[in-house]
């Protein structure tokens, strides 16, 4: 299985997702600032992976914080990591979990605190893989046999600690013996679909076809797509889903053509503090991501640009939300709350 990131004695190592698919290189973040930069620059990306990286960043910062200034430095570490990307709620979830652990150990020797923070970050990492396997097990029965699954962006091993959410569902369906293939939207402007999803599915030997984003409607109408499965960056209490820009268009086209639209995400992606998706902060990224493709300019100088990194799909387009605790369907206010409360 692809290793997205790992804790080492020297710091946090992560596969550089800006260089894939042609260069498979691990970068070493030696301090928490380098982890923050890696998240901001999308060396590591994808909601669950960001959450794990942030937790490791907190643990790394805590190793290097001075004894006399530990708690003020700890607060600064958490604030710096939290300021990297605004939409994926897993980032804040990971940091909060580390903060709670530190608070629960107040008064204990700092050596013990530091050791527990490292252990906790590794637990979060390992739990994420187990969670994705459970998401896969819940989702696989929903995937129609003998058809094509369309996905958008990369919600795979690379977007998590391993196995993936949406791609976890696809992997589990293949492992269950279903004869499926995948259509991957290329996902402009950052090309997570062509660079990352195709790369990791090819490694697994899963039959994958790359399409540009504007081809999705054509194929959703063609009859060959059995379902759409995507990940999520944040899901509001009513089941509105923030995910990579372009997801909303795919969801509308899926509904128009009677094709189920599934969202696969861990419980940590739910944000029940928000009643609707309108309140989800949407990250706006640099214009250069749109006006240039990997250093090559594709628009005239002075072009005005909008570059929202995510959009919100209203709950009426979502057929089901697949989590590690089970599958939620409308009305999502009730079904999501029940999953969170463990009913
Ligand atoms: O900007 P990115 O690449 O971090 O966006 C990633 C996505 O939108 C994914 O679909 C989402 O985080 C789910 S990953 C399991």
Largest sheet, described in full?
A: 7 strands, mixed
Oligomeric state, counting identical vs distinct chains: single chain
Spatial shape: globular
Query: What is the number of independent domains?
Result: 2
Secondary structure: number of strands: 16
Strand portion, in percent?
A: 15-25%
Strand order of the largest sheet: 6-5-4-7-10-15-16
Distance, first to last CA: 33 Å
Q: Please identify the top-level CATH class of the largest domain.
A: Alpha Beta
Structure, explained:
This protein has 343 residues and is α/β, with parallel strands linked by helices. The chain folds into 2 domains: 5-133, Up-down Bundle (Four Helix Bundle (Hemerythrin (Met), subunit A)); 139-341, Rossmann fold. The chain has 11 helices and 16 strands. Strand 12 (292-293) and strand 13 (296-297) form a beta hairpin. Helix 2 (47-64) packs antiparallel against helix 3, helix 2 runs antiparallel to helix 5 (110-139) and helix 5 crosses helix 6 (166-175). It is globular, with a radius of gyration of 20 Å. The model has no long low-confidence stretch (mean pLDDT 97). The protein binds 5-S-methyl-1-O-phosphono-5-thio-D-ribulose. Residues 45-48, 88, 153, 155, 159-160, 165, 192, 231-233, 243-244, 309 line the site of 5-S-methyl-1-O-phosphono-5-thio-D-ribulose. The site of 5-S-methyl-1-O-phosphono-5-thio-D-ribulose has 17 residues, from helix 2 and strand 9.
